[in-house]
Design goal:
The protein is α+β, with helices and mostly antiparallel strands and 299 residues long. The protein has 2 domains: 117 residues, Rossmann fold; 167 residues, Tumour Suppressor Smad4 (Sandwich). The strands form 2 sheets. It has a 15-stranded mixed β-sheet that branches. Strands 4-5 form a two-stranded antiparallel sheet. Helix 6 packs across helix 7. The model has no long low-confidence stretch (mean pLDDT 94).
Length: 299
Protein backbone atom coordinates (compact mmCIF):
# COMPACT_ATOMS: atom_id res chain seq x y z
CA UNK A 1 0.00 0.00 0.00
CA UNK A 2 0.97 3.63 -0.41
CA UNK A 3 0.14 6.22 2.23
CA UNK A 4 -0.56 9.63 0.71
CA UNK A 5 0.09 11.93 3.65
CA UNK A 6 -0.94 15.58 3.80
CA UNK A 7 1.14 17.33 6.51
CA UNK A 8 -1.09 20.43 6.28
CA UNK A 9 -4.31 18.52 7.07
CA UNK A 10 -5.97 19.32 10.36
CA UNK A 11 -3.99 22.58 10.49
CA UNK A 12 -0.83 20.50 10.95
CA UNK A 13 -2.22 18.04 13.50
CA UNK A 14 -1.94 15.24 10.96
CA UNK A 15 1.77 14.78 11.75
CA UNK A 16 0.94 13.17 15.07
CA UNK A 17 -1.64 11.00 13.33
CA UNK A 18 0.97 9.72 10.87
CA UNK A 19 3.20 8.49 13.68
CA UNK A 20 0.29 6.50 15.12
CA UNK A 21 -0.55 5.02 11.72
CA UNK A 22 3.00 3.93 10.97
CA UNK A 23 3.36 2.38 14.40
CA UNK A 24 0.14 0.40 13.90
CA UNK A 25 1.18 -0.79 10.44
CA UNK A 26 4.58 -1.93 11.68
CA UNK A 27 2.95 -3.75 14.59
CA UNK A 28 0.81 -5.65 12.10
CA UNK A 29 3.76 -6.35 9.75
CA UNK A 30 2.02 -4.54 6.89
CA UNK A 31 4.30 -3.33 4.11
CA UNK A 32 3.75 0.25 3.03
CA UNK A 33 5.44 3.19 1.34
CA UNK A 34 4.98 6.82 2.31
CA UNK A 35 4.40 9.74 -0.06
CA UNK A 36 4.08 13.26 1.38
CA UNK A 37 2.25 16.08 -0.38
CA UNK A 38 3.75 19.55 -0.57
CA UNK A 39 0.95 21.57 -2.16
CA UNK A 40 -2.45 21.56 -3.89
CA UNK A 41 -3.18 18.65 -6.24
CA UNK A 42 -0.06 16.74 -5.15
CA UNK A 43 -2.20 13.90 -3.81
CA UNK A 44 -3.89 13.58 -7.20
CA UNK A 45 -0.57 13.31 -9.03
CA UNK A 46 0.86 10.88 -6.46
CA UNK A 47 -2.18 8.57 -6.56
CA UNK A 48 -2.14 8.43 -10.35
CA UNK A 49 1.61 7.86 -10.57
CA UNK A 50 1.61 5.09 -8.00
CA UNK A 51 -1.37 3.27 -9.51
CA UNK A 52 0.28 3.36 -12.92
CA UNK A 53 3.40 1.90 -11.28
CA UNK A 54 1.45 -1.07 -9.93
CA UNK A 55 0.11 -0.05 -6.52
CA UNK A 56 -3.35 -1.45 -5.77
CA UNK A 57 -4.13 0.23 -2.43
CA UNK A 58 -3.85 4.02 -2.04
CA UNK A 59 -4.53 5.37 1.46
CA UNK A 60 -5.42 9.01 2.03
CA UNK A 61 -3.98 10.17 5.37
CA UNK A 62 -5.56 13.59 5.90
CA UNK A 63 -8.95 15.23 5.69
CA UNK A 64 -11.78 15.12 3.18
CA UNK A 65 -9.81 17.43 0.86
CA UNK A 66 -6.92 14.97 0.78
CA UNK A 67 -9.31 12.12 -0.01
CA UNK A 68 -10.89 14.23 -2.75
CA UNK A 69 -7.52 14.72 -4.42
CA UNK A 70 -6.68 11.01 -4.14
CA UNK A 71 -10.04 10.07 -5.67
CA UNK A 72 -9.42 12.43 -8.59
CA UNK A 73 -6.08 10.72 -9.16
CA UNK A 74 -7.66 7.26 -9.20
CA UNK A 75 -10.39 7.99 -11.77
CA UNK A 76 -10.13 9.02 -15.39
CA UNK A 77 -12.86 8.99 -18.01
CA UNK A 78 -15.43 8.12 -15.32
CA UNK A 79 -13.70 4.84 -14.39
CA UNK A 80 -10.87 3.68 -12.20
CA UNK A 81 -7.60 3.98 -14.08
CA UNK A 82 -6.55 0.57 -12.73
CA UNK A 83 -9.15 -2.22 -12.41
CA UNK A 84 -9.42 -3.44 -8.84
CA UNK A 85 -7.66 -0.44 -7.31
CA UNK A 86 -8.77 0.28 -3.75
CA UNK A 87 -8.82 3.48 -1.71
CA UNK A 88 -8.23 3.52 2.03
CA UNK A 89 -8.85 6.39 4.44
CA UNK A 90 -7.21 7.38 7.72
CA UNK A 91 -8.97 10.48 9.11
CA UNK A 92 -6.38 13.10 10.07
CA UNK A 93 -8.04 16.33 9.00
CA UNK A 94 -10.21 19.05 10.46
CA UNK A 95 -13.48 17.24 9.87
CA UNK A 96 -12.92 13.93 8.02
CA UNK A 97 -16.65 13.54 7.48
CA UNK A 98 -16.52 10.86 4.77
CA UNK A 99 -15.43 8.17 7.23
CA UNK A 100 -18.43 8.81 9.51
CA UNK A 101 -20.85 7.27 7.01
CA UNK A 102 -18.94 3.98 7.13
CA UNK A 103 -18.14 3.93 10.82
CA UNK A 104 -14.39 4.03 10.22
CA UNK A 105 -12.84 5.00 13.58
CA UNK A 106 -11.81 8.62 14.00
CA UNK A 107 -8.66 7.72 15.94
CA UNK A 108 -5.87 7.26 13.35
CA UNK A 109 -4.39 4.16 14.99
CA UNK A 110 -7.78 2.44 15.07
CA UNK A 111 -8.50 3.46 11.47
CA UNK A 112 -5.12 2.05 10.42
CA UNK A 113 -6.18 -1.33 11.81
CA UNK A 114 -8.87 -1.37 9.11
CA UNK A 115 -6.13 -1.44 6.48
CA UNK A 116 -5.30 -5.02 7.50
CA UNK A 117 -6.98 -7.98 5.86
CA UNK A 118 -8.73 -8.40 2.50
CA UNK A 119 -11.99 -6.57 3.27
CA UNK A 120 -13.24 -3.98 0.78
CA UNK A 121 -16.44 -3.20 -1.08
CA UNK A 122 -17.46 -1.07 -4.08
CA UNK A 123 -18.70 2.47 -3.54
CA UNK A 124 -20.27 5.12 -5.75
CA UNK A 125 -18.41 8.28 -6.67
CA UNK A 126 -19.93 11.61 -7.72
CA UNK A 127 -18.93 13.48 -10.87
CA UNK A 128 -19.25 17.23 -11.43
CA UNK A 129 -19.00 19.04 -14.75
CA UNK A 130 -18.76 22.81 -14.39
CA UNK A 131 -16.66 25.87 -15.17
CA UNK A 132 -13.72 27.24 -13.20
CA UNK A 133 -12.60 30.67 -14.31
CA UNK A 134 -14.51 30.19 -17.54
CA UNK A 135 -12.73 26.90 -18.30
CA UNK A 136 -14.77 23.64 -18.44
CA UNK A 137 -13.57 21.16 -15.82
CA UNK A 138 -14.58 17.74 -14.51
CA UNK A 139 -14.10 16.82 -10.86
CA UNK A 140 -14.99 13.73 -8.86
CA UNK A 141 -16.12 13.67 -5.24
CA UNK A 142 -16.55 11.00 -2.60
CA UNK A 143 -18.78 12.66 -0.04
CA UNK A 144 -20.88 15.82 -0.45
CA UNK A 145 -21.05 18.66 -2.98
CA UNK A 146 -22.99 21.93 -2.79
CA UNK A 147 -23.96 24.86 -4.97
CA UNK A 148 -24.84 28.06 -3.14
CA UNK A 149 -24.43 29.21 0.42
CA UNK A 150 -22.78 25.96 1.52
CA UNK A 151 -20.00 26.50 -1.01
CA UNK A 152 -19.54 30.07 0.23
CA UNK A 153 -19.23 28.72 3.78
CA UNK A 154 -16.62 26.18 2.63
CA UNK A 155 -14.63 28.99 1.05
CA UNK A 156 -14.83 31.02 4.26
CA UNK A 157 -13.70 28.07 6.41
CA UNK A 158 -10.31 28.07 4.70
CA UNK A 159 -9.76 31.64 5.90
CA UNK A 160 -10.67 30.99 9.55
CA UNK A 161 -7.91 31.02 12.22
CA UNK A 162 -6.57 27.64 13.31
CA UNK A 163 -7.35 28.22 16.99
CA UNK A 164 -11.08 27.88 16.26
CA UNK A 165 -10.57 24.16 15.68
CA UNK A 166 -13.79 22.26 14.85
CA UNK A 167 -15.83 25.41 15.55
CA UNK A 168 -14.57 27.04 12.36
CA UNK A 169 -17.52 25.80 10.28
CA UNK A 170 -20.04 27.40 12.63
CA UNK A 171 -18.17 30.70 12.66
CA UNK A 172 -17.95 30.60 8.86
CA UNK A 173 -21.70 29.88 8.64
CA UNK A 174 -22.58 32.96 10.70
CA UNK A 175 -20.10 35.10 8.77
CA UNK A 176 -21.51 34.09 5.37
CA UNK A 177 -25.19 34.08 6.35
CA UNK A 178 -25.29 37.83 6.89
CA UNK A 179 -24.10 38.59 3.36
CA UNK A 180 -25.26 35.69 1.19
CA UNK A 181 -28.46 36.10 -0.83
CA UNK A 182 -30.73 33.53 -2.42
CA UNK A 183 -30.59 33.28 -6.20
CA UNK A 184 -33.04 32.37 -8.92
CA UNK A 185 -32.17 28.75 -9.71
CA UNK A 186 -33.17 26.08 -12.17
CA UNK A 187 -32.62 22.52 -10.94
CA UNK A 188 -33.13 19.86 -13.63
CA UNK A 189 -34.00 16.52 -12.01
CA UNK A 190 -34.47 14.75 -15.36
CA UNK A 191 -38.16 14.02 -14.89
CA UNK A 192 -39.05 17.41 -13.45
CA UNK A 193 -37.52 20.85 -12.93
CA UNK A 194 -37.60 23.23 -10.01
CA UNK A 195 -37.41 26.92 -10.91
CA UNK A 196 -37.47 29.63 -8.27
CA UNK A 197 -35.43 31.06 -5.40
CA UNK A 198 -33.01 28.91 -3.41
CA UNK A 199 -30.29 29.45 -0.84
CA UNK A 200 -28.41 26.21 -1.41
CA UNK A 201 -28.45 22.93 -3.34
CA UNK A 202 -26.91 19.86 -1.69
CA UNK A 203 -25.83 16.83 -3.74
CA UNK A 204 -24.79 14.06 -1.37
CA UNK A 205 -23.12 10.69 -1.78
CA UNK A 206 -22.28 10.40 1.93
CA UNK A 207 -24.29 11.48 4.96
CA UNK A 208 -22.07 13.92 6.88
CA UNK A 209 -20.31 17.22 6.32
CA UNK A 210 -19.20 20.34 8.21
CA UNK A 211 -17.59 18.45 11.09
CA UNK A 212 -20.36 16.00 11.95
CA UNK A 213 -23.53 17.52 10.50
CA UNK A 214 -25.81 14.75 9.21
CA UNK A 215 -26.85 16.74 6.17
CA UNK A 216 -28.12 13.78 4.12
CA UNK A 217 -29.44 11.13 6.55
CA UNK A 218 -30.88 8.99 3.74
CA UNK A 219 -27.74 8.95 1.57
CA UNK A 220 -25.84 5.72 0.94
CA UNK A 221 -22.66 5.62 -1.19
CA UNK A 222 -23.69 2.16 -2.38
CA UNK A 223 -27.22 2.76 -3.70
CA UNK A 224 -26.41 4.07 -7.19
CA UNK A 225 -28.08 7.47 -6.70
CA UNK A 226 -27.28 10.90 -5.27
CA UNK A 227 -29.36 12.50 -2.52
CA UNK A 228 -30.43 16.03 -3.49
CA UNK A 229 -31.78 18.81 -1.30
CA UNK A 230 -33.00 22.10 -2.76
CA UNK A 231 -33.00 24.41 0.23
CA UNK A 232 -35.62 27.13 -0.12
CA UNK A 233 -35.37 28.16 3.52
CA UNK A 234 -35.17 31.77 4.62
CA UNK A 235 -32.13 32.87 6.60
CA UNK A 236 -34.25 32.78 9.76
CA UNK A 237 -35.23 29.16 9.02
CA UNK A 238 -31.61 28.25 8.22
CA UNK A 239 -30.61 29.46 11.69
CA UNK A 240 -33.43 27.52 13.36
CA UNK A 241 -32.57 24.32 11.47
CA UNK A 242 -28.82 24.43 12.13
CA UNK A 243 -28.90 22.48 15.45
CA UNK A 244 -31.18 19.87 13.89
CA UNK A 245 -28.73 19.16 11.06
CA UNK A 246 -26.35 17.42 13.48
CA UNK A 247 -28.93 14.67 14.00
CA UNK A 248 -30.38 14.72 10.50
CA UNK A 249 -33.67 16.05 11.87
CA UNK A 250 -33.81 19.03 9.47
CA UNK A 251 -35.63 16.86 6.93
CA UNK A 252 -38.38 16.44 5.99
CA UNK A 253 -39.16 20.16 5.87
CA UNK A 254 -41.68 22.08 3.81
CA UNK A 255 -38.96 24.38 2.43
CA UNK A 256 -36.43 21.65 1.60
CA UNK A 257 -37.23 19.70 -1.56
CA UNK A 258 -35.69 16.22 -1.53
CA UNK A 259 -34.96 13.85 -4.39
CA UNK A 260 -32.80 10.86 -5.31
CA UNK A 261 -31.40 10.93 -8.84
CA UNK A 262 -28.52 9.62 -10.93
CA UNK A 263 -28.05 13.09 -12.44
CA UNK A 264 -29.00 16.68 -11.65
CA UNK A 265 -28.09 20.00 -13.28
CA UNK A 266 -28.07 23.37 -11.50
CA UNK A 267 -28.02 26.88 -12.94
CA UNK A 268 -28.34 30.08 -10.90
CA UNK A 269 -28.54 33.80 -11.50
CA UNK A 270 -26.27 35.16 -10.24
CA UNK A 271 -24.05 32.05 -10.49
CA UNK A 272 -23.62 29.99 -7.34
CA UNK A 273 -20.15 28.89 -6.13
CA UNK A 274 -19.70 25.11 -6.08
CA UNK A 275 -17.76 23.01 -3.56
CA UNK A 276 -16.97 19.31 -3.39
CA UNK A 277 -15.71 17.58 -0.24
CA UNK A 278 -15.09 20.98 1.32
CA UNK A 279 -13.02 22.36 -1.57
CA UNK A 280 -14.22 25.23 -3.79
CA UNK A 281 -14.00 24.04 -7.40
CA UNK A 282 -15.89 26.53 -9.60
CA UNK A 283 -19.38 27.87 -10.20
CA UNK A 284 -22.68 27.05 -11.81
CA UNK A 285 -23.92 25.98 -14.28
CA UNK A 286 -22.95 22.55 -12.97
CA UNK A 287 -24.05 18.98 -13.65
CA UNK A 288 -23.74 16.30 -10.97
CA UNK A 289 -23.81 12.57 -11.81
CA UNK A 290 -23.27 9.33 -9.94
CA UNK A 291 -20.73 6.71 -11.03
CA UNK A 292 -21.99 3.46 -9.48
CA UNK A 293 -19.35 1.17 -7.96
CA UNK A 294 -16.56 3.35 -9.36
CA UNK A 295 -13.97 2.41 -6.72
CA UNK A 296 -13.46 -0.08 -3.90
CA UNK A 297 -13.16 1.18 -0.32
CA UNK A 298 -10.89 -0.60 2.17
CA UNK A 299 -12.73 -1.35 5.41
Amino acid sequence: MVLVFNPAAGRGRSKGALAEVESQLRRRNLDYELETTSGPNDATAIARRRLEAGTTLVVAVGGDGTLNEVINGMIEGDAGIVPGATVGVVPAGRASDFTRTFGIPKLPAHAAAHLDGPGSFPIDIGKITLRDGGVPVTRYFANVAEAGMGAAVARRVHGMPAWLGPMDYLFAFWSVLARFSAAAVSVDLIDRTYEGPALNVVVANGQFFGGGMKIAPKAAPTDGVLDIQIQLTSKREAIALLPKVYKGDHVPHEHIKEAKRVKVSVTAEPPFPVEADGELIGETPATFEVLPNALALKI
